[in-house]
Design a protein that fits this description.
The complex is a heterodimer of chains A (about 250) and B (about 325). Chain A is of the alpha/beta class and about 250 residues long. Chain A contains 6 helices and 15 strands. In chain B, about 25% of the residues lie in helices and about 25% in strands. The chains are: A alpha/beta (about 250), B alpha/beta (about 325). Bound molecules: flavin-adenine dinucleotide and adenosine monophosphate.
Chain lengths: ~250, ~325
């Protein structure tokens, strides 16, 4: 079986978000870059577990971005995966990113394509669905459990207020979230091995951006907390009713 | 024409879709075109009432098999309907189904796509939509350059704006492609309000010390008709079910009221709840970071404060 795992880079979850150049660029000062948690903890680790069960499995990682993403993809390789492909283009347009990945997926004839549920920076939650549409494949979103038997995948996915089980014949695109696997920490052997694993850099296919980010804005600061004493719960109820108008 | 995809479940139209309809009516007004709805599948819900949120017509493809989500099938049906109806803007609620369907529909319509939209578009010199980024820590303004636009709007960011109006329901035919997935089981937590659709959410953290102490929180939630949530360590320790976990790596919610009990307010927790309209924090540590993100704060022991708050709400209900 061949699995393609999509890996993206995001600012660390504790990063303080600020912008520069007239609010058109993220201020990268002091920002630590990490593998998007959904890609690292859930989709990549689940793919590694599938390989551990069936050593005939091959895992390829794909990332769309410029050379700055290489430390991230090496870190992903240290966790597991056989080789990586970097498509050498930087874009915040989901259509461009999905088109590049779909091209890689088509050429590689993968049985399974994993993405994360969403990137924690742009929060688009769109790449998986787009890749599936571009390749005319089935798509299952927000998977929290995944098993495979022959050519059939059994996938549990989140629905509003519950869970649903889907059966799908491969190939399929799946977006992964909590529940798929447990977070792992790369070990020394993995880190050493990652240095020599192949990382292929490919040029992008021609593709026009359908959207452009114009600028950014920070949300207005909170007015400041209004403290209510512990014996003043009637007053709190009044404030919630009359001032905030939320109950 | 602005076409709004309407999501329904348990014989009801989802509130998030009513809101998308209302937003769609406003977008249509900006563009000087009509706002129409698209309903897939069968439901007892009175779909002509979508008129109250501004729909002039409701196109209904009443095929049972479309009640389940098969993204490959349903996105094809939606894209086909949008093309047939000549829609220039197709809208979705950014809820579970909308997140899965909208990007695929965008591909099929060769449309530019923005998800997580948080305000009405600006249509002078382009078509600009503001969306939340960095898990609610910022907004980005995006220009959509294509003739057709697909937008998924954040829940609870626009609200409902009802008017006196009844929509005309029009039956629509469609070729339904062969299914690509088989749904073998559906498990729903009975009687619970889905977190993402709730107006009020009461949430607990490690400060509650253990699952046996959740009674006071559940009582408060019941009194308020609220859904319940929790911080990540709470669901990681199995004190509460995983679907209650909110934050950067859990659910992102935006209720009108979020009450945080015994939660410190770590940045990753805030990322899931900072779009709530009003935040109340109950924490015994006056230095807890959550107070900086709160509208109302009570510095005190949850075990005393929460029952007192529940009693005060009960009392105010009785005097109404
Ligand atoms: C990559 C990453 C992703 C993460 N994602 C998430 C996420 O999605 N969601 C999430 O929640 N966390 C997430 N976390 C964890 C987060 O950093 C915090 O550790 C977590 O939110 C803390 O949970 P807590 O507030 O319940 O517990 P604590 O931080 O232990 O806080 C407990 C609070 O309860 C108060 N308290 C104690 N006793 C009482 C009492 N009797 N009455 C009132 N108050 C009391 C204390 O003063 C304290 O403020 C993530 C962390 C990382 C590194
Ligand atoms: N630049 C990228 N390169 C590779 N995979 C990506 C990229 N951007 C997003 N993805 C994948 O798509 C998922 C959803 O991202 P998004 O739709 O941008 O929220 C991520 O969790 C990744 O798995």
């Amino acid at each position: 079986m061949k699995i393609l795992v999509c890996i993206s880079k995001t600012p660390d979850t504790t990063a303080k978000i600020a912008f520069t150049e007239g609010n058109t660029k993220l201020d990268e000062n002091g920002i630590q870059w990490i593998i998007n948690p959904y890609d690292e903890w859930y989709s990549l680790v689940r793919a590694i577990e599938l390989k551990e069960k069936d050593p005939a499995t091959t895992i390829h990682l794909v990332t769309v971005g410029n050379a700055e993403v290489e430390p991230i993809i090496r870190k992903a390789l240290a966790l597991g995966g056989d080789e990586a492909i970097r498509i050498n283009v930087q874009s915040n347009d989901s259509f461009v990113v999905a088109s590049q990945i779909a091209e890689v997926a088509k050429k590689g004839a993968y049985d399974l394509i994993f993405t994360g549920k969403e990137t924690i920076d742009y929060n688009s939650a769109s790449i998986g669905s787009m890749i599936a549409a571009l390749l005319d494949l089935p798509f299952v979103s927000l998977a929290n459990h995944f098993t495979i038997e022959g050519n059939t995948a059994t996938i549990k996915r989140e629905i509003e207020g519950g869970e649903e089980t889907n059966e799908v014949i491969l190939p399929v695109v799946v977006s992964c979230q909590k529940g798929m696997a447990e977070q792992r920490i790369p070990n020394m052997r993995g880190i050493m091995a990652a240095r020599t694993k192949p990382l292929h850099v490919q040029e992008p296919i021609a593709c026009n951006e359908s959207t452009q980010v114009l600028d950014f804005e920070l949300p207005p600061a909170k007015q400041g907390v209004k403290l209510v004493a512990t014996d003043q719960m009637d007053e709190l109820v009044r404030l919630l009713k009359e001032e905030a108008k939320v109950i | 024409m602005v076409l709004v995809y309407i999501d329904h479940e348990d014989q009801q139209i989802k509130t998030s879709s009513l809101e998308a309809m209302s937003y769609g009516a406003a977008v249509a007004k900006l563009l000087g075109v009509s706002a129409e709805a698209l309903v897939l599948g069968t439901t007892q819900a009175s779909i002509k009432d979508l008129g109250k949120q501004g729909a002039t017509k409701v196109h209904h493809i009443a095929v049972d098999s479309l009640n389940m989500l098969d993204v490959k099938v349903n996105s094809t049906v939606i894209a086909h309907a949008a093309t047939q109806l000549n829609a220039s803007v197709v809208l979705f609620a950014h809820n579970i189904n909308g997140k899965a369907l909208a990007p695929a529909v965008a591909i099929k319509l060769k449309a530019g796509f923005v998800s997580g939209a948080s305000s009405l578009p600006e249509i002078e010199n382009g078509f600009k939509v503001t969306k939340t980024v960095f898990s609610g820590k910022a907004f980005a303004k995006i220009n959509i350059a294509t003739p057709i636009k697909v937008i998924a709007i954040n829940q609870n960011c626009y609200g409902l704006h009802p008017i006196e109006n009844v929509a005309e329901v029009v039956a629509m035919q469609s070729n339904i492609p062969a299914p690509s997935i088989k749904v073998t089981e559906v498990e729903k937590v009975k009687g619970e309000l889905p977190l993402t659709e709730a107006n009020i959410v009461v949430s607990g953290g490690r400060g509650l010390k253990g699952p046996e102490n959740w009674g006071i929180l559940l009582d408060l939630a019941k009194e308020l008709g609220a859904a319940t949530a929790c911080s990540r360590p709470v669901s990681d320790s199995d004190w509460r079910p995983h679907h209650e976990h909110v934050g950067q790596t859990g659910l992102q919610i935006a209720p009108n009221l979020y009450i945080a009990i015994g939660i410190s307010g770590a940045i990753q927790h805030l990322a899931g709840v900072n779009r709530s309209k009003t935040i109340v924090v109950i924490n015994k540590d006056p230095e807890a970071p959550f107070f900086k993100a709160a509208d109302y704060g009570i510095v005190g022991d949850a075990f005393e404060v929460v029952p007192a708050l529940t009693a005060a709400i009960k009392k105010s209900r009785q005097s109404e």
